[in-house]
What does this fold into?
Amino acid sequence: MKGMLLLAALLAIALAGAGCTGTGQGTPTPTPGTPGVADASVNETLRVFAAGAQQVLDRVDANVSAAAATLATTGLTGPNAEGVLLNLSRSGNQSGNYSIDAVTFDTNGKILAVMPEDYQFAVGANVHGSSNVQGALNGTPGLSQRINLVEGFRGVALSYPVRNASGVAGGVSLTLRPERMLAVPALAALGNTSHVLSAVQTDGTIILDANTALIGQSVLNATQYGGATDLAKIAQEIVSTPSGFERYQGNGTSRAIAWQTVGLHGTAWRLVVNQER
It folds into this structure.
């Protein structure tokens, strides 16, 4: 029954708003945890989750990279550029509805064009302060942390530089809802198990959880663990260590927890599988 509830919760995340390891640049290489034979299920669930999540990230990365190459020819504004942005904004529609809108910006970080048209109000906004935009203007792709976006919601953005004959002319950015993007590979990994799947940034911010009320909160908030003081210590280990496997006691129940890292361009996400034993 628990597995079905988790499945339903993750499916709700994936559909809300109708939201092998990868090779993206700067991608940390996940390493398996070290569970015993009895814990093989949690490790296999984590392997499938990490492989699927990295594949999604790599696919998004390839889409934004291709859009940047096309925009180098079309320019950053005008009907042709808007067509590129519209196609990019729709790129996540078939697998979780996780891509929201796409923009171009100039060398000062000012948004020049945005699609779909519902987000035209963002034109003229300055996004130079975002790390991903700064990276793109310095010639390097970048994936932001979960931030307040000018579109009016919290999410992440992946940006690429757009070059012309003179160098970097500006950039292109795709905004994403990570909870939707990760929900589909999480569902594929969950199967019929009763595991609890989540994802956190290295600053501790939760970006995926079956309990949607926890998204945006910090895994480092020890008060949420009650008497499971071991779990509070493990949370510190999760954000500081790329992969691992631990056991802890929660309400008199022995549990196992394992995690691995996926990411793009130096931004890392910890994927976590928590198993009640």
In short: The two ends are 15 Å apart (CA to CA). The first strand starts at residue 99 and ends at 105. Residues 1-8, 13-35 have pLDDT under 50 and may be disordered. The longest helix spans residues 40-74.
